[in-house]
Each structure stands twice: as C-alpha cells, then as structure tokens.
Amino acid sequence: MGRDRADLVVIGAGTVGGWSAYFAKTGGLDRVIVIERGRAGDGASSRAAGMVRAQGGTPTTVALGRWSIDFYRRQKELLGTDSGFRELGYLIVATDEAGMLAGRERVAMQARAGLAVRWLEAAEASELNPWLAPDSIYGASYLATDGCIDPARNVRAYSIAMEKAGVELREFTTFTGLELAGGDGASRVAAVLTDGGRIETSRVILTGGPQLREVGQTAGISVPAGAVRHQVAITQPHPAFQVERQPMGFDLSRGLYWRLEDGGLLFGMSNPGEAPGPARSIDWAYLDNMRVRLARFLPVTQGLELRKVWAATIDYTADHQPILGPGLAADRLSIEGTTVASAGGHGMMWGPAVARIAADLAVSGRTEVADVGPLGLDRFNASGRSRLATDPVALPFPTYAADQPVAAPIGDGPASRSS
Fold it and tell me: What DSSP designation does 336 have?
C-alpha cells in the first residue's frame, strides 16, 4: 500500500476551511486534502445569519470586510456559482451620546481606510428606512455597499469551487493529531493523523470555528478561541419588508442586528451575560427581551409572529479579532508548516479574506490581503488575554476564560513526534 501524501491538509470544511483549500489549490499546490469529521458546512457555516460588512472597527478588519465583499461580488464570474450576495446597505446605530461620539470617530477611521462611509443623523437614517423610529437613535453610520449572503448557498459555492479545483474532501474523517519532526528543539509538520490513516504533508491549516480550541488541543496547540450560543429568528412576512432593498441595522450596544429575509425580517443576537460553551437550544426569555428591543427601533415588528427560530454555537476570541498565524508549541516556538485560521465569529463577514490569507501563509508565508502580523497566537497570554485592543464593532460576546467548558480532544491527544 502506497503512502498517502498531500501538499496541504486543511482541518475543517466550514467557510474558512473550504475557501482556504480552494485558494491554496488554485494558488499552485498540486494535492490539497480537506478533513471533515461530519459533512461540509454542517456546523456554524450553515446556521449563520449571513451579515457582511466592511464597517470594521480597525483598519485591518475594514480590509478583511472589503476583500470579502469584493470576492462575493466576483464569484459568479470566477466560479460559475456564488454565495448569493445582496447589497442592502448597513446602518450601525448609536443609542446614546457616547455611542454617537464613538460612531463618528469610527467613521473617520473607516474613511481614512478608503470606505465611502458616512455618518447620518437620526432623521437621515429614517429616510433610508422609513420604518425606523428616528427617536430611537442618536444617529448611525451608513455604508451602501454592505450586504448579506445566503449561508446555505455559500456552503454550496465553496463545495463546488473545491470540486472544480480538484480539492479532495474527506467527510466523516476525524483528525487525531499531528506528527512532528525536527531536532534541537525545532519542530515541523511531518504528517496529519486521522482515523482513516496517516497523511504525509509539510503543511496544515487548522480551522474549526467554535471547535477550533478542540482542534488545537488535538494538535498540541493552545488556541484561545471560545464558543457560545447565538440566536437568530425570522418574522412572518409583512409588506414593510417585501421590498428589494432596505438597510440592515445593528444595535451595537446590545448586539442586536436585523435584515430582510423572505418577505419578513431576520434578526439575531448574542447574550454577553451567558456562560460560554456549546449550545443549540433556544433561550426564549432572552429572545423575547430582544424582540421588545427590536420593536423600539422598528415598531412595525411589534406583534409579528415568528416563522423560524434557531440557535447555533459560534466562535469568538478575547479581542473579537481573527487568529491568523503559525501554531505555537508549549515552549511558544512556532511549529513550522502550521497555520491557525479563525474568523473570530465573523465567518460570513471575513471568511473569504481569512481563508485567502491562511492559504497565502501556508503556501508562501506572506499575504497582500491585509497586515495580519499582529493577529497570531503570540498576542495571547497564558490566560487567553490579548495584548490588542478589542475590535469595537462586534457582538458582545462573553469574556474569554482559559478554563471555560470545552469538549474532549478530537483524537487521542497532543501531537506525536518522530525523528
């Protein structure tokens, strides 16, 4: 029996893993294998709300959002299929004077980064969306080119892209560890271990969204990425929402957002007071609380029935920013050939850009998409705290704790070493 070899093995077939495999294969690698313990897209990627914005809180996250939106727009031409991007515009509302001042400063930063973003007074925002109560906000930032995708269609798009490019997808295959080689304290990837056998390779990209911490443990790498419940609901159809275009909205102070969907309104939320950990059940009390808040902004939603509600486990990081860089061994030295890639809870929003960067780093060690030098694992201390400032435009996730609940490692434990 011959040896199983690959130029790159990608762990996880979610948005980041799927697109990174496609980018690496079309970027020049001969054989790319994706390992997925379930089915492609079965995790958070198929349960997302699909919000996509370039209105990031830092120049780097602005760049990630812009690159991703540009890619979504070009997909049909590149691939013959797409993720269903719709340009709707996005209002990020301020609910008090402090939020207004912060919003104006954010708009100035984004404008310096090249976005055609502007600050709107409350009356101007309600002109863009006549159902928005002007007395509910102090103003809003607005970018016309933000929008949304269809998460299920996105899974289909990267699955088709991988197949056309010649990526080998191995579903229902469990990652069980890394085999490392090297002497004098150095280490490099020699093989990826799975329950289906050993794959000889010198490159691996570790993804996994809310399971990334677990994936890291299996590889012998500490990845301070958390997991938490996120809830999404869609109202019954209503004439107010049966239009082709209407700005999406984000109440940044409470992590409540909304957009058009199937003639009704989709809205989503995360509870910052909730204990972290995997969860897919519905917190009806918190959902009801957020429905009341939604009606403050959009009174037309009061009394509307819900036609669909779901919860998913999504990922987050302590600073709400992505993780992109080499895996680190226990001695904090880089493991050659490893690339850790997390969108930090923004898989639809930054996923394509994060995936492209991960592929670039795996193939050539550099990328032109954005300056991601500060986004490696070395920014975190032993408790998972980051030295970077928190991205201010993010859902209010719980505070990350190194001892938060986590599933058992996927395989038998840390990486093994061969000489």
Answer: B
Residue with tokens 């191995």: 170
Average pLDDT, the chain: 93
Amino acid type, 278: P
Question: If you write DSSP's letter for every residue of 303-347 in order, what string do you get?
Answer: TPPEEEEEEEEEEEETTS--EEE--B-TTS-B-BTEEEEE-TT-H
Q: Per the confidence metrics, is the pTM higher than 0.90?
A: yes
Phi-psi region of 122 (alpha: psi -120 to 50; beta: other; left: phi over 0): alpha
Residue pointed to by tokens 């429905």: 291
Instruction: Please report, for the chain, how many H helices and E strands are present, in that order.
Output: 8, 21
Encode pLDDT of 356-368 as tens digits.
999 999 999 999 9
Q: Tokens in use for 110?
A: 């984004």
CA pair distance 288, 304, nearest whole angstrom? 12
- Pairwise CA distance, residues 35 & 17, whole Å: 9
| Alpha-carbon span 320 to 393, nearest angstrom | 9
Q: Report residue 125 CA to chain centroid gap.
A: 28
Q: Which residues face 229 on adjacent strands? A: 313
Q: In order of start, what are the domains of the chain with their CATH numbers? A: 8-46+152-224+318-410 (3.50.50.60), 87-147+227-317 (3.30.9.10)
